[in-house]
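Q: A reviewer asked whether we had any structural model of the full assembly, not just the individual parts. We don't, so I'm hoping you can provide one. Inputs are below.
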Amino acid sequence: MAIIEARALRKSFGTTAALDGVDLRVEEGRILGLIGPNGAGKTTLLNSILGLTECEGELGVLGRDPWRERDALMRDVCFIADVAVLPRWLRVRQALDYVAGVHPRFDRAKAERFLARTDIKRDSKVGKLSKGMVTQLHLALVMAIDAKLLVLDEPTLGLDILFRKQFYDSLLHDYFDGNRTIVVTTHQVEEIQDVVTDVAFIHRGRIVLDTSMDELASRYTEVVVRPEDLQAARALSPIRERTLLGRSILLFDRADRDALAAVGEVRAPSIADLFVALVGGA
Amino acid sequence: MSPLSNFYWSLRRELWEHRSITLVPTAVAAVALVSFLVHVVRNPGNPAVMAAMTPAKRAFAVAMPFSMVASVVLLSSFIVGIFYALDALHAERRDRSVLFWKSMPVSDTVTVLAKVMVTFALLPAIAFIVALATQILMLPIAHSSLPLGDLNLGRMTVVMIYGVAIHALWYAPIYAYLLLVSAWAPRAPLLWTILPFLALAAAEKIALGSAFLLAVLRYRVLGAMSEGFTPNALHSPITQLSQLEPARFFAGPNLWLGLAFAAACIYGAIRLRRHRDPS
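A: Here is a predicted structure for the entire assembly that you could use as a starting point for your response.
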């Protein structure tokens, strides 16, 4: 079953098109990394999926129209917009009370267990917690909700590297069980490389690549080419060529592996390199 | 969860966030109580003077301090309500916590109605309880200096409940309008409330030479007394139930025009919270 199904999604702000015909399908049990530069339309797409903004085109989330059925949808969908949207005056205990009071799928004991592993005190106000702790608290609240879809928009923005690592470890080990579906956007492409099962590139309001990591690995190949084989390698029509520390690195789309192995050292490209190759830019 | 439970937790949220709802009336009551104590110590009262008064005059003199203290507490909650309403739908956008609240299965309607409930019912109810408690605490202090036998606290309480209720209804359009500005204003909702009004009032004065707008506002702030009580109730403590005129209050068009305006503002505030793009 498709958890998210979008066809020809459009949304304009004034004369700028934030979404310019987005097609996207996310199946149950996948972890999709949505990657794109600032202003590419990531947040607009997520806001549409969450029913926070109205858009043109067809959009179904868990079989519902998110804009019209937002209140019902929020029982099965959870999201973290980015760090520090928990209000500063809120106490940890009040946050637990509130979510327990309004969310039918919240398991308070589970949230308490997550919090017990941190240094967060129940009486603390959010404003007194460090940025990392606020994220831990938010994550503890969200992970204790038995949601079908979790949306994370830049969840680790502004966190130091230790917390970022911890964040995704928790998410994978304590939350993800193969039935839930997660959509995550981030600037730190490398930190979700090993977390996601699928990746979608968004650029200028369009999806330029939407593929599973398995397919990505079998389709795209990067070759570190020996100087003497450069001409032969170029003949295999790479989609991008770059030089790193004096060595030429060529990226191929659906090329013959044996032929590639003959001209250099074959390896899997990083998502970041692939993004640059497909979207262009710096 | 049911809308009712969502509504309950949304109200709890308002009380957590805006502690002034309970703290300010309580603090004002404490100050009033201490002031009254100082007053009684400095003016022990003269039983002979009191005894020489006519019963009606004596009833006024005894009721006066109780009435004044209650008025001060109720006025403080009106002022708290103004600042609360201006902040209620603006603060959550300013600190972006609106995204957290919207990630919960609580509708915009329930959220906004909880905030409306705070201004229309919760604040007046809290102010009433605090005022009544203060009056009760005044009794032992006043015991030595005032002939409390002439005080009818039960009747005063009925008058106060009536006064609080008609003011809550009468002020509904003010609070609803402030909530609407709070939902709309890009920043500084207080300025967005005052400046357009001042500009319009000045324009009216210059163009037409009239002050209709100011008169409307003045009547909205002060008018509940003249709509809901007999004219002689305006300048001294109300001691007789015959001074209450609920039939006239509820029959007048001003109340219902105000309530219709309030409903429109609340509808607008809900729509704004729902449709505004979060970013």
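A: Points you may want to mention in the reply: The mean pLDDT of chain A is 90. The longest helix of chain A spans residues 161-175.
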